[in-house]
TrEMBL record, chain A:
It is a single-pass membrane protein. The chain crosses the membrane at residues 217-236. Coiled coil: none annotated. Residues 114-225 form the ER membrane protein complex subunit 7 beta-sandwich domain. The keyword S-adenosyl-L-methionine does not apply. Keywords: Membrane, Signal, Transmembrane, Transmembrane helix. It comes from Characodon lateralis. Pfam families: EMC7_beta-sandw. It is found in: Membrane. This is Endoplasmic reticulum membrane protein complex subunit 7.
From TrEMBL, chain B:
Gene3D superfamilies: YVTN repeat-like/Quinoprotein amine dehydrogenase. Residues 1-20 form the signal peptide. PANTHER family: ER MEMBRANE PROTEIN COMPLEX SUBUNIT 1 (PTHR21573). Keywords: Signal. InterPro entries: Beta-prop_EMC1_1st, EMC1, PQQ_b-propeller_rpt, Quinoprotein_ADH-like_sf, WD40/YVTN_repeat-like_dom_sf. This is DUF1620 superfamily. Residues 20-417 form the EMC1 first beta-propeller domain.
Length: 298, 704
């Protein structure tokens, strides 16, 4: 439940750059007279360890300025006592040598492999090599002697790959495990604590050699250009029933589309007419006309 | 960390430029060697008859198990580098190995068969003094850890603390050793130097102080160095000032130590030598042996026995370099290494309770002249079928090398642990073959004339033809020989460049002062050389002064070893292909050296010039022949260098003058209150710049 406290701040004192012209206020309190009410109230909420301040311009009081000032001071003191600022990722609070030391516990599992096979080559690294732990024979580990702060814990083996986990330790010893996100460092996707880390498979150090497969032959463009049309020509008539008169009609229609229209002038004849002149064409037409009556007389 | 301890030296070298590594190429062009570091503690795993492991804990914070048959690493665990991961003590019992790490920060128990940890607990703060296994009625179930102000006893099975007690008067008394004889009591021995010994006896059950005794001992200053516990709780301390052995029965209430002068045994101590005692407790749940070694001189050991309060000399070993006990089953033997001649030592076994030499137990160990002297001896003893004792021995030498030897002297394996800390290296081309040298002969000389060039070409081709026929004949001859007679080893004698100059000689300099020449194709060590008198915090710089490209002159490498504290330096000049010291004598350097600089100027015999700047800002050149000095005088005005004094924040630039002195040209002061110079990086001295080259008409190459 958010703990709320109200800070009322006098305009011009604490936030000098905040103006409260009635035109900017929301539709909350229009009835307030603009001359006297220049007080901005700031609501401080403490929720889930974060302190957020929101500005509201509602209330308006007159004449109780010193009391309000006192209240604000008191509230500020109260708020600072309850704030628990999250340490940013990577900020290690290690300046007190006499501070409490904690330990990070967890268990690492490689599915399908007995622990004693891989445990002798494994180490647990907390924040790089700053704190080193080792795995027990059953795959569990505990890294001792760690001050409070935020750390990236990873299990390192030459054979298997484990995902790193971020662990935050508060100064009182509360542990919280979450996913590692270097970009959005304050994102919290909780992981179980004590840590349970599963191997996500063996390391892949090598590139696979290119192998032969049946797709190499079929996906070759040359083959596709030859084989597919062959298939179309050979198989398509078999699929289509050519004895059907309707099918025949359709096929003939599509064939007719391919034939040139005799009404349309032939382009090549046009060109020869253009370039050879009228004599040649008349000769040609007369010779053609001559040949026809000759054929007809017979 | 700039100083890469890197206990793991992994070298993967890919010869071919590949765009990726495929799994079937692994191992063809690369090799890898793993090291652990200088051995600090070692225990043989004698759990089973056929046990094949030796556990080692090293100076480089590594705890590892080695296979005794092949010397290969079974597993290893590297802790943090630095004093926080330092291994203070190694205790071994059955399948568990207990380590105290980080000056008493943590107690860990490892399962030696699997290589995984059993448990780890954080100990209370306090600097570490000693630890021991506590046994009771024949079984060992607890481990006691003694710190500066507390003693704690933990269960061996899970590490939980059984009890922890403050040591009485720990501000005055310096508690140094803890001992348990297997009767349910834990003895803590402390000392006020040159005043008295305090013995506190704790009960193992609940940590109650059973007894607390103070005994006067004004001559004693350090317990672990001078005293051991022998037999049923008898403390024996050797005192060099009064030449006597003082004994004290820990179980009785003695007020004074009994003094037994060494003269009564007919012995005298070598002057200027601190005598040293060695005892042996094979089973922590039982009392130690009543026999012990006393070292009276650098080459003199005595096997003594404590018999009813009297010391009896069983055997006098003179000369003897190292001595050690070993137990197998019920028998205990003493192994003593004595020098035989200049190059070999012999190790013999003696029965511990009688001092008689056991027959057929001589083992010859050849001391490598290029290695260090033997430093420690670890013996693995076992019972043979006829109930006699056989043994194998692991010898640790000064140059961090570990050798495992079997009777009668056959070396099973050697581990060069100096390679775990390589400081610098250079890759040196191998010498040219005859035919390649012939080919090179055509270039470089100015053209004499057409006929001479033709004749030269014809003659070199004839020589190459001859060499090729000889090579074919040799191949044919080898093919006809039976397989096992053809030797295929790479030996240093027939090393020469291969066709593309890919196989090179890797010259490695390690921080212990040992030089290695490693073949880059197979990773085998071709030559090694241990330099004496290398200070422990030395800085090394390796420079190739002459490569193998100039035939009649041998290749030459120079190693500059500088002591960081005093600044004094020595030069070691050697041939990188064979590892032998070069004929050229380096100059003596009486002044501390500030900087060294290698110039591309070459001497008449093609050796590059090395300039050394001493703290008087005077320069000395290494091949200081007339030719070199003349060249330097000509080019002196264009030789500049800068010096950095980071403690005062001063950077200064100097120029060389013709008489090899220097004058300051510029100076920049960065006040140390404002900023501190942390590191200075110049051009890497072993940087090879490969520039594009273009072949000109007269066969010379113009580099960009």
């Amino acid at each position: 439940m958010p703990y709320t406290t109200v800070l009322s701040v006098l305009h011009g004192d604490a936030f000098p750059d905040v103006t409260s012209s009635p035109a900017e206020t929301t539709d909350v309190e229009r009835s307030v007279s603009p001359i006297t009410c220049h007080q901005i109230h700031v609501i401080a909420t403490f929720d889930k360890g974060r302190l957020s301040l929101t500005k509201t311009d509602n209330m308006c009081q007159r004449g109780s300025v010193p009391l309000l000032w006192f209240f604000m001071q008191a509230a500020l003191v109260l708020v600072s006592c309850f704030t628990d600022i999250e340490t940013g990722p990577g900020a290690v609070v290690s300046t007190q040598p006499n501070g409490d030391r904690f330990k990070i516990e967890g268990r690492a599992i490689v599915p399908g492999v007995k622990t004693q096979d891989w445990v002798s080559t494994a180490r647990v690294l907390v924040e790089g090599e700053e704190y080193v732990g080792f795995l027990r024979t059953d795959g569990s580990f505990a890294v001792n002697d760690i001050p409070s702060g935020s750390y990236v814990v990873e299990v390192v083996t030459p054979t298997y790959r484990f995902e790193p986990v971020r662990v935050d330790i508060t100064s009182k010893g509360k542990m919280r495990a979450r996913l590692v996100n270097y970009i959005k460092t304050s994102e919290v996707i909780r992981q179980p604590y004590p840590l349970q880390i599963r191997a996500s498979g063996p390391h892949s150090y090598f590139m696979k050699r290119e192998t032969w497969g049946w797709t190499d032959f079929l996906m070759n463009p040359m083959v596709m250009m030859m084989v597919l049309p062959l298939l179309i020509i050979v198989l398509l008539p078999k699929v289509v029933n050519t004895n059907d008169p309707e099918m025949r009609k359709e096929m003939e229609q599509s064939m007719n589309m391919l034939n040139p229209n005799p009404e349309l002038p032939d382009v090549s004849e046009l060109m020869t007419k253009l370039f050879s002149g009228s004599k040649g064409s008349s000769k040609a037409s007369s010779s053609s006309k001559g040949s026809r009556p000759a054929a007809k007389r017979r | 960390m700039a100083k890469l301890i890197l206990l793991l030296l992994k070298l993967c070298i890919l010869f071919f430029v590949v765009h990726a590594v495929f799994e079937d190429q692994v191992g063809k062009f690369d090799w890898r060697q793993q090291y652990v570091g200088k051995v600090r503690f070692s225990h043989f795993d004698t759990q089973m008859q056929s046990s094949k492991k030796v556990l080692v804990a090293t100076e480089s914070n590594v705890f590892a198990a080695l296979n005794t048959r092949t010397g290969e690493l079974l597993w290893r665990h590297a802790d943090k580098t630095g004093p926080e991961g330092n291994i203070d003590a190694l205790l071994h019992h059955a399948q568990d190995a207990v380590l105290v790490v980080g000056n008493g920060r943590m107690l860990r128990s490892w399962d030696v068969n699997i290589g995984g940890m059993n448990w780890e607990i954080l100990l209370d703060s306090g600097s570490f003094r000693s630890a021991c296994l506590v046994g009771q009625q024949g079984t060992v179930k607890h481990v006691a850890v003694l710190k500066k102000t507390v003693i704690s006893v933990h269960y061996l099975s899970n590490g939980h603390q059984k009890w922890i007690e403050n040591l009485p008067e720990s501000e005055i008394v310096d508690y140094q050793t803890v001992y348990s004889g297997g009767n349910g009591q834990v003895f803590v021995l402390g000392i006020v130097p040159h005043s008295h010994i305090t013995i506190v006896v704790y009960s193992m059950e609940d940590g109650e102080i059973i007894k607390q005794v103070s005994v006067e001992a004004p001559w004693l200053s350090n317990i672990p160095v001078s005293c051991v516990v022998v037999d049923q709780g008898m403390l024996m301390c050797v005192d060099s000032t009064t030449m006597s052995i003082n004994t004290l029965d820990l179980h009785q209430q003695q007020l004074q130590m009994t003094q037994i002068p060494l003269q009564s045994l007919g012995l005298e101590v070598d002057p200027d030598f601190h005598p040293y005692l060695v005892s042996h407790q094979p089973n922590p749940a039982q009392k130690p042996l009543s026999e012990f070694f006393l070292q009276l001189g650098p080459e003199r050991f005595l096997l003594l026995q404590l018999n009813n309060g009297q010391i009896v000399t069983l055997r006098d070993f003179k000369p003897a370099l190292l001595a050690s006990f070993a137990t197998t089953g019920e028998k205990t033997v003493a192994a003593v290494m004595s020098p035989k001649n200049k190059t070999a030592c012999s190790i013999n076994l003696f029965s511990a309770d009688t001092g008689r030499r056991l027959l057929d137990t001589t083992l010859i160990f050849t001391v490598d002249p290029n290695g260090g002297k033997p430093e420690r001896l670890h013996v693995q003893a076992f019972l043979k079928k006829d109930d006699s004792v056989g043994y194998r021995v692991m010898v640790q030498t000064e140059d961090h090398a570990v050798t495992f030897i079997q009777q009668p002297g056959r070396v099973m394996w050697t581990r060069e642990e100096a390679l775990s800390d390589v400081v610098t290296m250079e890759m040196v081309d191998l010498p040219l073959t005859g035919t390649q040298a012939e080919l090179e002969g055509e270039f470089g000389k100015k053209a004499d004339g057409l006929m001479s060039m033709v004749l030269k070409r014809l003659s070199s081709q004839l020589i190459m033809l001859q060499a090729w026929i000889a090579h074919l004949w040799k191949l044919f001859y080898d093919a006809r020989q039976p397989r096992n007679q053809v030797k295929n080893d790479i030996s240093i004698e027939n090393l020469s460049r291969d066709e593309f100059n890919l196989q090179k000689m890797m010259v490695m300099v390690t921080s212990s002062g040992k030089l290695f020449g490693i073949d880059s194709k197979t990773g085998g060590i071709l030559w090694k050389r241990y330099l004496d008198n290398v200070p422990s915090n030395a800085a090394f710089k390796l420079m190739v002064q002459r490569t193998t490209a100039h035939f009649p002159h041998p290749p030459q490498c120079t190693l500059l070893i500088k002591d960081k504290d005093t600044g004094l330096a020595t030069l070691h000049v050697f041939n990188p292909i064979f590892g032998r010291r070069s004929q050229v004598t380096p100059p003596a350097l009486p002044q501390p050296i500030l900087q060294s600089l290698m110039l591309p100027l070459m001497d008449q015999d093609y050796a590059k010039v090395l300039l050394l700047v001493d703290d008087q800002y005077k320069v000395s050149a290494f091949p200081s022949t007339k030719n070199v000095l003349q060249q330097l005088q000509e080019t002196a005005s264009s030789i500049f260098f800068f010096l950095v004094d980071s403690s005062r924040g001063r950077l200064s630039g100097y120029r060389l003058r013709m008489d090899l002195s220097t004058e300051q040209v510029w100076e920049v002061v960065i006040p140390t209150e404002v900023q501190k110079i942390v590191s200075v990086k110049g051009k890497r001295p072993n940087e090879h710049v490969h520039s594009q080259g273009r072949v000109m008409g007269d066969r010379s190459v113009l580099y960009k």
